């Protein structure tokens, strides 16, 4: 179980890092032109960059507290925050009729929920 939780944290970290780098450093116009990035045309650049920074922070929070053994309880807290972020992503893509992206976000949500459950419960770092 512990190994599955570490793998899940690693996968979600990679997703958060990729999304965060893209939203933070790629110009909004380029994002809007990419399949699945059309939503960026409906919001301001500050909103897109803020989401990018939040995703970068999530990437750090899903792994580093446990690896460094500094406040490892932040890992499941970050996973819960990722669940909330994915709910927002699902709503956004759902309104745009992007069902494939809704399903992808649902997978990320399920992984984050598994991580939160596992690290709050049976494989807690504090127990």
UniProtKB/TrEMBL annotation:
Alphabetical list of Pfam families matching this protein: DoxX_2
TM ranges: 56-89, 101-120
Main location: membrane
Subcellular location: Membrane
Domain of life: Bacteria
InterPro entries: DoxX (IPR032808)
Keywords: Membrane, Transmembrane, Transmembrane helix
GO cellular component assignments: membrane
Topological type in the membrane: Multi-pass membrane protein
Protein name: DoxX family protein
Originating organism: Streptomyces spongiae
């Amino acid at each position: 179980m512990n190994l599955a939780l570490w793998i899940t944290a690693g996968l979600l970290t990679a997703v958060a890092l990729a999304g965060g780098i893209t939203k933070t450093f790629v110009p909004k116009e380029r994002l809007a032109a990419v399949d699945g990035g059309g939503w960026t045309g409906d919001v301001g650049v500050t909103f897109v960059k803020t989401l990018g920074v939040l995703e970068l922070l999530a990437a750090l929070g899903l792994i580093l507290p446990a690896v460094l053994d500094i406040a490892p309880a932040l890992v499941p807290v970050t996973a819960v925050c990722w669940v909330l972020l994915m709910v927002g992503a699902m709503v956004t893509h759902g309104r745009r009729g992007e069902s494939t992206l809704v399903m992808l976000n649902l997978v990320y949500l399920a992984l984050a929920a598994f991580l939160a459950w596992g690290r709050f419960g049976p494989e807690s770092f504090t127990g």
